[in-house]
Amino acid sequence: MTDLATVREVGLRDGLQLVKRTLPTDIKIEWCQTQAACGFREMEVTSFVPPKVIPQFADAESVLKAAQSISNMRAAVLVPNLKWGLQALDHGAKKITFVLSVSEAHNMANVRRTTDTSIAEFSELIAERNCRGLQDSVMMSVALATTFGCSLQGEVAEPRVYNVAEQVLMAGAQELNMADTVGYGNPIQVKRIFTEILQLADKVQVAAHFHDTRGMGLANAVAALEAGVREFDASLGGLGGCPFAKGASGNIATEDCVYLLESLGFATGINILAMLEVRKNLKNWLPDEPLEGKLLKAGLAATFE
Ligand code: ZN
To answer: How far is the centre of ligand 1, averaged over its atoms, from the C-alpha of 177 (Å)?
Structure first.
C-alpha cells in the first residue's frame, strides 16, 4: 500500500498576507478553483482579521463562501483571537485555525495578548462552537507559531513548546500545526520536536508548516516526514513572509513540496503538470511579487514516474 501525504495550500492566506496590492476577489476564487482541480483537498483560503490591519482579507466572507462550494475541498480559515474566531463561526467556516505563538514576545507583537490569554480565548471559542452544536461539523486547529525559534525572543525552549501543545490539546484542539514562522528550525530539532509532539497528540492530527527563510524548508519537511508527519502546509511559488522576520521568504513552495513527497514514494493525489499551470498563472496574477520554487524552472526529472 502506498503511503499517503497531504499538501495543503496556504498561499491564499499566508502567501497573500504581506502582499500590498489587494488581489481581486474573483482572481482569488479562480486560484482556489483551479488549484483544487489539480487534486488539492485542503486550502487555507483566507483569514478573518480586522480589515484595517490586513485589507487583503476584507473579502474573507466572499472567498470562503466560494471556496466552500468547491466539492472535495476543505476550506480552512485562520483567526487571531476569539472575536474573529466567532466571525468565522458566524460565516459558516468548517475548519478554523487559531494562531498563537509559543514565544510570548511574538504573540504580543502579532496578536497583542499573552500566550495564556490566547489559549484561554481558544478554549472559549471551542465552548462557543459546542454551545452552537457544531462540534461535529467545525474542526478546530491550532497553529503554534514560532515553535522552532523566534526572531524577537530568540530561542524557544522545547519544554515550553510541549507545555503549550498540551494546553491546547486539553482545550480541545483537533489538530496541532507546528509552524516555523521565521525559518529558524533545523532538521535535527524538527525531527526531535515532532517525535515528541506526535506522542503527546496521540490520535489528534499533527501538521507541519515550514518557511524557507534560510533554505532549510524542504530538509525540515523530510525530517518531519521521518518523525511521522503526513500533513504539510505550503504556498504556491513560495509566496509569503513574516512581518517580524527580516528577509523572510515565504512558505516552502507547494510545487517543490509535492515533487519531494512524490519522489519519496508518497501519494499526494496531485496532478503535478496541472499544478505547474496554476503556478504560471500566479505570476500573471501577481506580476510584482518575487516567487520561489525550482520545479517550474527545471521541470520534472526524466526519471520521475
Ligand atoms: Zn506561515
So the answer is: 10
Alpha-helical runs (H) found in 132-176: 158-171
Helix (H, G, I), strand (E, B) or coil at 83: helix
* CA 133 to centroid of ligand 1, rounded, Å: 31
Whether the predicted pLDDT of 241 surpasses 70: no
Q: Which of 32, 38, 242, 257 is catalytic?
A: 242
List b or e across 142-172, with b for residues whose CB sees 16 or more CB atoms inside 10 angstroms.
Answer: bbbbbbbbbbbbeebeeeebbebbebbbebb
Largest Cα separation within the chain, whole Å, is: 55
| DSSP-derived 3-state class of residue 43 | strand
Length of the chain: 305
Classify residue 134 by its DSSP letter.
-
C-alpha 164 to ligand 1 mean position (Å): 18
Confidence class for position 240, pLDDT limits 50, 70, 90: confident
Assess whether 242 carries a catalytic annotation: yes
Distance 212 CA to ligand 1 centre (A): 10
Strands (E), the chain: 6-9, 42-47, 74-79, 95-101, 139-145, 175-180, 205-210, 231-234
Q: CA nearest 96: which of 50, 143, 26, 63?
A: 143
The confidence band for 243, taking pLDDT boundaries of 50, 70 and 90, is: low
- Mutual angle of helices 158-171 and 115-131, in 10-degree steps: 20
pLDDT digits (tens, 9 = 90+) for 66-83: 999 999 999 999 999 999
Give the Cα separation of 149 and 103 in Å (integer): 8
